[in-house]
Amino acid sequence: MIGIDLGTTNCTMAASLLTGDGAVQTELVSQLTGLDITQELAALPSFIYFPLAEELSSGLPERCLGLFARERGAELPNRVVASAKSWLCHPGIDRREKLLPIDAEDLSAKLSPVEACAALLAKLREEWDARHPDHRFQQQQVLVTVPASFDPSARQLVQEAAEQAGYPDIVLLEEPQAAFYAWLHRHNEQWRKQLKVGDTVLVVDIGGGTTDFSLISVEEEAGQVTLHRQAVGAHLLLGGDNLDLTLAHLVKGKLEEQGHELDTWQMQSLVHSCRSAKETLLGDNPPDVVDILVRKRGRALVGGTLTTPLTRDDVYRVLVDGFFPIVAPTERSRCERRLGIQQVGLPYAQDPRVSCQLAKFLSMTGESDSQEMDRFVVPTAVLFNGGTLKAAALRQRLVQLLNHWAEQLGKAPVQVLDGADYDHAVSYGAVVYGLARSGNAIRIRGGTSRSYYIGVEEAMPAVPGIATPLRSVCVVPFGMEEGTEQTLPQQSFALVLGELATFRFFSRSTPTLSDGSEAAIGTVVRNWKTELTELHPIEANLEKGTTDGRTIRVTLRSKVTELGVLELWCDAADGRSWRLEFDLRAAVPSS
After folding, report:
1. In a 3-state reduction of DSSP, which class is residue 212?
2. Is residue 184 in a domain?
3. pLDDT tens per residue, range 377-434
């Protein structure tokens, strides 16, 4: 059983013998750490570097992956692919287009986000096969983790990347759940002494590029303690990368005050240089000051540098207070109007205050009205995960924030679940989830992390200047379990055949609507603009039979496969069916 954490900043791999005692082991990954140095490390940094011509002539491969690529990226940032996984959920690009590195000046070969993720996954497969020649990767059970907030199309693209990397059929698992599985496994049966029926665990997972929130409740069913994933947060491109960039701007300002001007290349290099300073100044027993070195423009491995100090007080002010301020539970993220023309790049969260993003998630509605505070969830326990939260100062501030809300709402202080592994919990927990699927460990019930809706155009006479009304119909309720399917009861629809048609899809990250009602299969939402988030539309030309008219009457059937993939089927009375896929490819008709 192999667990893969395809991380935004680092990839890790863990495994367990199916015939063993359930022990889970982290796998080492051999990689370049210098020009002529190869080492085995417990993580593969998620960076891909395209060497210079002189480096290729000296023996470097056409693409370098891992630590050397990350370090070289600090010197030549326009030759390195970073945050490939985050590009998979970018709504404004073709994720199969060769566009990375986005700022490359002279690269004849680029990678698509899917190809970049496939390259990282292939590296892990090659390392496994090199270390376990008698147990080839293709013959193992493989689980790959994704952010809980990944929509169906992004999950499909992860599967596509795994196929390109030579993987067998994979099972997908949400990263916060994986982290919780790891904590449960490491505590064996002792976790039952820390958690009791009625408790709610908040998993806060802040990695290099993303922030994920999940709520898991401890319940009792037929006399047995069970775990149930209640809700997941929106996909937030907000993480350690944002903190690094903030420090880089702070240092840039200091250098400009000294009369130094930094170009775009130096600014990108500075972002990489601030990463280690952040980890040092926010860690345990931090020094008062760290010197930041900025390399001058040049192609050489070693060149001139500029130096400026970065103090611990500076870091606390801009990072701890800036990203994790103490706010009221009614505080919400600011939404600024976007400019019509933007640089091609990742769709980062507009408001960097993690505190406000968390307040919105725990409100379960997103509303800031104080009357909604009776639905605000104050967790009884919190589990931290992700490399960014290795910083003790950030964990302490988050606990302070949660306890501030608990006090305001008359709740008990939050319990911090100790023993977290911020680097390897996700791949470790993926293995434990695999064991749970086979009945060898407790399983968290959850199913789909969102409810999904399809847009249905209403039949009405055309009115000048008025768009045809659209209603959204729930086709996948929140928490629909893997390996199940549901048919919309007593509802039929007209499916357009033989011409290019657009299918619109929507989602909601909580099981209930704003009025408190729970959305079930077939639930109709007319005020979808305020209730739901629109996903990528699908354009498809569905096969038309020789005797069919422009439309055919169908019923809708949704299915969640054992691998966690969503499928929507349109079934006609004559036995024909058409499948709508969520992966942006043309829909595949099937009969």
Report:
1. strand
2. no
3. 999 999 999 989 999 999 999 999 999 999 999 999 999 998 889 989 999 999 999 9
CA distance 304 to 310: 19
- pTM, two decimals, is 0.83
CB crowding 544-553: b at 16 or more within 10 Å, else e: beeebeeebe
Same domain for 72 and 114? yes
- Of the candidates 232, 226, 297, which has an alpha carbon nearest to the alpha carbon of residue 77? 297
Q: Tell me how crowded residue 502 is: count the other CB atoms within 10 A of its CB.
A: 11
Q: Dig out the tokens for 110 from the structure.
A: 């680029």
549: containing domain = 451-590
Query: How many whole angstroms separate alpha carbon 147 and alpha carbon 47?
Result: 19
pLDDT tens profile 142-198: 999 998 878 778 888 999 999 999 999 999 998 999 999 999 999 988 898 899 999
**Taking a C-beta distance cutoff of 8 angstroms, is the pair 42, 56 a contact?**
no
How far is C-alpha 172 from the geometric centre of its chain's CA atoms? 12
DSSP-derived secondary structure letter, 518: B
Distance of alpha carbon 42 from alpha carbon 45, whole angstroms = 10
Total domain count, the chain: 4
| Separation CA 509–CA 103 (nearest Å) | 34
